[in-house]
Amino acid sequence: MEQFLASSERAATLLAGCLGKNGVLRDPEVAKDMCAQNKLPVLLAVSGRTVEAHRLLDRIKRDFMQENGDFLSFPDKEGRDRKSGSFPMSHFWSYMNVWITIGAQKMERFDISYPAYAYCKRFYHPERQMVCVTEPFAEATAETTVDMLSTAHLGKLALVMADLDMAKNCGEGLLKFMSAQPRNDVEILLRANATSGEIITDPPNDMQPFYSVKRDSPKQLYFFLGYHGIFMIKLFKATKDERFLNSAKEILDFALTCHESMCTFSYSHKVAMAAALVAVETKEAKYRRLAIGLGEYLVSIQDNEGFYGSKDFQPIDKYDQTAEIGIWLREIPGELGRII
């Protein structure tokens, strides 16, 4: 797995070199949008580039951070356009916030991480024990949804912040949500109505990829499955509660039955990380092989510059996905190396 580390190092070197001394990305096409840089503090931190990480965090605090702890790319715009030019990033409102907060906490930038975490917690729905997707709980409407990704993401951040109570609440909410799945042999439904708690089985036509992962359909957004696995196995490590380990295994076992495109799709990256984590705990070869196979595919889509999947992504997504894949390719070998 040396190629995983070498590939991650190439990505980190590339992206660190894209930063100016003021922490601003030199590419003017992406410099103003948080989508291109929300995960980069984590990659810089885990790759040992602390100077660049601090410069970027200084820039994020200076240009994007709001008084309430939120982060906005374009605060002078209206509505969801304030968040990002990327539709998914502006729809899943707290998603980039959590990545930035994790990076800030890793760098002990408590001036950022503490107020940012306080804002992220506002999305937690105490009755559902899940996280609102599009607005804080206090601003929820009859149309507000809670979902697996936002809940696992906040739960993982809670572990980073040593807030075990919040992490366990998110874990319990996800266990209840998964137990209510009506047809988990053929698809995993991803959202519930925040008011009623009912799992949504009939999503808006233009939003279907964000509402379910279908077993037999190609190129689903498998990262929804992967992040659930990542959070659940990390919560198991913190609590030793076997229910969380079993939930991580179950989601990966579903992934293993999915369409063959899952193995050659860049958005399976979180599945690779989840599989590595579960392999360490279970010593089961199927999870180790899944992590390695997906990792090898991710290495194969790195271009000569160091970006991953650059032909398939818009510019801001190219930076975003390169930072994330670089993170997972650095962490996967560290986990699998623990298997004796």
Briefly say what this structure is.
With 340 residues, this protein is mainly alpha-helical. The protein has helices at 2-17, 40-46, 50-63, 87-91, 95-106, 110-120, 148-160, 164-179, 223-239, 242-256, 269-282, 285-300, 315-336; strands at residues 124-125, 130-132, 145-147, 187-189, 191-193, 212-214.
Summarize the structure in words.
With about 350 residues, the protein is mainly alpha-helical. The chain has 13 helices and six strands. The strands form two sheets. Strands 1-2-3-5 form a four-stranded antiparallel β-sheet. It has a two-stranded antiparallel sheet with strand order 4-6. Strand 1 and strand 2 (about 130) form a beta hairpin. The protein is globular and about 50 Å long. It starts with a helix and ends with a helix.
